Amino acid sequence: MEPKKIVYSKPSITELEINYASDAAKNGWGDDCYKYINKFEDMFKKHLGVKHAIATSSCTGAIHIGLSALGVGPGDEVIVADINWIASVSPITQVGAKPVFVDVDENTWCIDTRKIREAITKNTKAIMAVHIYGNMCDMDELSQISKEFNIPIIEDSAEAIGSEWNSKKAGSMGAYGTFSFHGTKTICTGEGGMFVTNNDKIYEKSLTLSNHGRSKNQKKQFWPDMIGFKYKMSNLQAAIGCAQIERIDELLTKKREIFNFYKNNLKNLPFKFNPEPENTKNGYWMPTIIVDENVEFNRDDVIKKFNQNNIDARVFFWPLSSLPMFRKIKENINSYSLNKRGINLPSYHDITKEQQERVIGVLKDIF
Q1: HEC readout, 145-173
Q2: For the chain, which domains are there?
Q3: pTM for this structure?
Q4: Among 30, 136, 199, 256, which has the highest number of CB atoms less than 10 A from its own CB?
């Protein structure tokens, strides 16, 4: 009999999430239609240690709101790492600005801060720090660049819940931060995201933009003060989010256990795992291997081998400059190299040691 399929990621849903969602479905209407949304925002900002949080329909929407609040628009440029998911840069193009792709650091896989200064022009309006797979960008250097050039740092922390830089949580250090609660993420609301900031002005503008341009201080009913967006999270989704935040320590601990089991049982093989420098903590959303450059292998054959064993595996993100809507930048050698050598391994709360051993066995057979 074929062994049970191992998916690359899925959420952990318990009776707590089901009970909260049921309560929202039964009772979360009328005066209580924002009950769980308000509670989720409050719980999340307390967990992160920030002043403001706005629950959104997606992380992509949260990025879009923030860019608009910063006034980024046509003719402007936003510097971002070349190797990321498209959701990080699509809002940049949607506000009419241009994403400027720089290479990533070969060790962290995040934006190479040494390349940023070379890319800054008079049109640069923001720098986006994407904490890929839970790996932390160099926030000290980014902060220094921000102060030196008076350019805000945006933290795309979609994949970095649980990650920290010098004990500061990912998403809490930039002009604003964003998070994803997609079904593959460590915290899940089905779909959804969160916008966070410590800046009162950015918060007020973002809050208005997120609700069709209606200011919370506007006394007129159905009176928008500006053209805004519809990026609100539903009360039902927020109810699930509240339960997930109550379980956050459990969920993050399991992510680290999964990662460490892979790493401890795949020693002496020719690849590297997600880094965790001394001053950081990695949330390890997606355990990832980068095969050594001197090893000849075909990534697609490895994925095929996993599929033959009824195991999901994911390729490393593509360099964004390799996509047809952008200009190819082959000088970004780390981005183009990592894509060919990287593979994401299955990681979800309910994965068993036996299932991880199946994944490990496939890798040992190949390498």
Answers
A1: HHHHHCCCEEEECCCCCCCEECCEECCCC
A2: 15-246 (3.40.640.10), 248-366 (3.90.1150.10)
A3: 0.96
A4: 136
